[in-house]
Each structure stands twice: as C-alpha cells, then as structure tokens.
Design goal:
α14 packs parallel to α15. By secondary structure, the protein is of the alpha/beta class. The longest helix has 26 residues. 39% of the residues are buried. The strands form five sheets. It has a six-stranded mixed beta sheet with strand order 8-13-12-11-9-10, sandwiched between helices. The chain has a six-stranded mixed beta sheet with strand order 16-21-20-19-17-18, sandwiched between helices. It contains 19 helices and 21 strands.
Length: 506
C-alpha cells in the first residue's frame, strides 16, 4: 500500500490533480519549496521536508532532502529484519512513492545568455539521488520522473492500492535512463570530451533494412520537433526501418522550405527523386512528381503545407508508402483513409533545427557532428566566371543548391523552374553523376541550371553540362583546378558561382 509520497517537481504539469488523488486516498504528502506552495494553494495539505526531518533547508536550498529520514525511508528493504530494526531505532518511516523531476539544466544552458552561475545552480543533486534510490529499491518503492506516467500510476493505485512490480521496474529503468541523459548533458556542458545519449524505445520494428535483421526505433530524450519521434501517425501500416530512414530524409529536405513558398519532395532510398517549389502546394507536388515519375513509384512524399481534399485526391492516384505534412484537413484524411496501407505522418509546424546533433554509429563507437543547417543566400555567392547569372538564374541556383545538399555524394542536380529534373546521386565519380543527371533530365534541359555538392576536380563535368545546354552552375569551388574549370565555363558561355562551402552527404 502507498502510505507516504515525496513530491518535488520543477515540471508541475498534472501534479495538482495527481497529488489531490493521493491526498483523498489518505496518502501522507511530503514536499519542498515551490511544489509545497503550489499544492497548498489548491488546498492540498503537505508536510514540508524540513519539518519532517527536523533539519532546515540550508545553503540557499542546496541541502534539503539529503537526510537519513528521506533516503532511509526510500532505500530500506521492507520485511528485512535488520533494516526494519534500524528504521525503528532511527525513527525512519517508509516513503513508498517518489515523484520528482529535475532542475531544467538542458533548457537553462541552451539559452544564449546563460551565465556559468545559472548553469551550475541548475545542476540537480537531491533529485537524482532520491530518484535513483527509489529506482534501486523498485521492489518496494515507485519512482516517477515523467508526468506522462501519472495516469498509469494513479490507475494502478486506484485498482490495487499500489503499483505492480512490472510497472515499478519499468519506471525504474526510465529513471536510470533519464538521469543518465541528464548527467550526460552536464558532462557535455563542462567538456566536449564527453557525449552521452539517452534514448527510450518507441517500438520494435518488423525487421531492419532486410528481413533477416532485427531492429528497434528509439527516440532521444526531449526530441526535436518536428521529427519522426514527435510525428503523429494518422493511419497506415506500421512504419518499417527503411520507411523511417526515408521519411527522415524527406522531412530534413522539406525543412529547407519551412518559411518559404509551397514545396514538395519525393524520396527514394534516402535520395530525392523529385522536388519542386511553386505557387501552390498542389502545383509543387505535380512538378516534383514530373521530375522522375518512374522513380517516384513507392516513394515518400513530404509537403510543407496543409494537405487539402484536392491534393489528397491527386496523391491517392499515385502509389506511395508515406505522406508527411504539417497537417491534413478532415477531407484529406477521409479521402486518403481509403488507402489503408498508406502511412500519413502529421508533423506539426515546420521549423529548422539550429543546435541539433547528427549521431551515427560505427563499429566500436559513434560519430557526432552538427547538423548541416547552413543557409546560402545570394549575398554569399562568389562570382567565378565572366558571365554573370541573371536574377532569375540566381533564384534557380539557390533552389538547386537546397535540394542538392540532400542528395548522396557525389551529387549533381539539374533544375528548371524550381523543379528538379535530373539527379545524379551516390556515384564514385562526379562525371558519372553528371551523366546520370543529364540522362534523367533528357530533352527538358534547355536553359536549366545545375548544382554540385562539391567542387569539380576537372573541367570534364562542366563540359558535359555546358554542351547539354546548362546555362548556370552553382558549386563550392576550392579545387586546385578551379582556374581550368572556370576557363571551360567561359569558353562555353556558362555563368558559374561559388558557395565556398561544401555539402557532402555520405
């Protein structure tokens, strides 16, 4: 039975209702500081920890729960003769439920104006100590760190008078995961030599990249939104390992247009096979689809605006695996519900990530880098050739660059009217990527522009592009043969600009 609870939370979501439920069941409530004040405001009687222990809060609140009556009440083994005797001798009563969440250290240090003093004061000491003690003694004590678990705990107490052993063990694991993540954030604040990642299982997947591989989808603690971890799955079959990878690639690309004109992209095998920006979302999809209709079969579509009934009708005419958008109208959902296996992912308002990390595993370790969110504007471009691009070509080149940076290297992208019409991806030779992009573009190439994710090491690539009809090129520059590449462009009458940054995607 739950006789006594200790509540001390920085995130007060739902705590009033949960504490009220416990109080009505006759559970004695111990609390501290702001939490105690909030509960009293709502007529919920509490005992201050300082009154309970007989020791006042000291050092500006740095020491308040670090006391044998608190930690002893959490940690002692019920039914153990030696422990029960020691508890009696030291006037230690059982604390059966610990409801604690931690000082908002991560949120605090993310503020650009945070001082070291503020950061240090937001390192929680007592909170992790109580939670870890409760989690260690999960056979007898329930540890709750996440407000989203209040309904589960409340339901079990209501039905059984206590939580189940299975629930206590699950909540204990969550505590150790979240305190590990918390400590990792603190360690990273002190030194970049340390990087800890805490994740929570979302689901076991049917299989991995191939049917003989097992796989699981985990989400990061406090995941960035919008993301695959925060998306709402409105309908369709369970997402597969490859669906998740492709949907993530689609979301990453469409975030390039979070604040711009209507845009759409289609992803296959982590590469865009279609992408466009236009006056309407419907037109953007049509243009994206026209880029490579054959490759779009079975693709993942991402859009940067609301999917309405008209667009939903068009989308339903194409075989797609996943459609991802900020929101779907009620009419769109009704239309698309007829395709029962089609997954709809509603991701909410689009915003570009700023400080997120890209974490990839290698045998024996991890690679961690900043996400490539560097934007290129017209003012960033360096004129390389005698011929200057027109203002319209500049717009086309910047569009092509946005898409090209999401193509696997070596990447070449040909665009016309803000539509990707030819994409060469993932080739070991940049010339091979050029030839694939030209083949995909076909006869549509007149007056088109091209983007390259890295410099041209030799003039042959731009020669092929120029002779096929490309009129302007955007590329990073930086090759020891830049002068030869520029000379070839001048010879062919091509306007070329340098971004001065590379956009490899391995």
């Amino acid at each position: 039975m739950i006789q006594r609870v200790l509540i001390s939370v920085s995130d007060k979501t739902g705590i009033q209702e949960f504490a009220s439920f416990l109080q009505k069941r006759g559970v004695e409530i111990l609390s501290t500081g702001g939490t105690a004040a909030k509960l009293r405001e709502h007529g919920i009687p509490v005992i201050e920890v300082a009154d309970y222990t007989g020791s006042p809060e000291i050092f500006g609140g740095r020491v308040k729960t670090l006391h044998p009556r608190i930690h002893g009440g959490i940690l002692y083994l019920r039914g153990n003769e030696e422990h029960e005797e020691a508890a009696g001798e030291n006037d230690i009563l059982p604390i059966d439920l610990v409801v604690v969440n931690l000082y908002p250290f991560e949120k605090t240090v993310r503020s650009p104006d945070v001082t070291q003093e503020e950061a240090i004061e937001n390192i929680d000491i007592g909170g992790p100590g109580m939670l870890r003690a409760a989690a260690k003694n999960y056979e007898h004590v329930t540890a709750v760190i996440d407000p989203s678990d209040y309904p589960l705990v409340q339901a079990e107490i209501e039905n059984e008078g206590n939580t189940t052993m299975e629930t206590r063990k699950h909540l204990a694991a969550k505590v150790f995961s979240k305190t590990a993540q918390y400590d990792g954030e603190v360690a990273r604040y002190f030194s970049a030599d340390f990087f800890a990642v805490a994740v929570e299982k979302v689901q076991d997947l049917r299989y991995g990249e191939n049917p003989h591989q097992s796989a699981t989808f985990y989400q990061m603690a406090n995941p960035f939104a919008p993301s695959l971890a925060t998306a709402e799955i409105l309908q369709g079959k369970e997402l597969s390992y490859n669906n998740i990878l492709d949907a993530n690639a689609a979301l990453s690309l469409i975030l390039e247009f979070a604040d711009g004109k209507p845009a759409a992209c289609i992803i296959k095998h982590l590469n865009p096979c279609g992408a466009a920006s236009s006056k309407t979302l419907h037109k953007a999809f049509e243009n994206a689809y026209s880029g490579d209709p054959m490759s779009a079969f079975g693709g993942i579509v991402a859009l940067n605006g609301e999917v309405d009934g008209k667009l939903a009708t068009r989308l339903s005419e194409v075989f797609l695996e996943v459609i991802l958008a900020p929101i779907f109208s009620a009419e769109a959902r009704k239309i698309l519900s007829k395709k029962q296996n089609l997954r709809l992912l509603e991701v909410g308002k689009l915003r570009r990530p700023l400080r997120e990390k890209d974490v990839r595993s290698v045998l024996g370790g991890f690679l961690v880098q900043d996400l490539d969110v560097r934007e290129i504007h017209a003012s960033d471009l360096e004129q390389a050739t005698k011929k200057k691009p027109t203002p319209k070509q500049i717009e086309e080149l910047l569009f092509a660059w946005k898409i090209c940076r999401h193509v696997k290297s070596n990447a070449i992208l040909i665009a016309q009217d803000k539509t990707a019409i030819g994409i060469g991806a993932g080739q070991m030779s940049r010339v091979d990527s050029v030839e694939i992009a030209l083949k995909k573009a076909g006869k549509r190439i007149k007056n088109a522009v091209a983007a390259s994710d890295a410099y041209f090491p030799f003039p042959d690539g731009v020669e092929f592009l120029g002779k096929a009809g490309i009129k302007a090129i955007i590329q990073p520059g930086g090759s020891i043969r830049d002068s030869e590449v520029i000379a070839k462009c001048d010879e062919l009458g091509i306007a070329m600009v340098f971004t001065k940054i590379r956009a490899f995607r391995h």
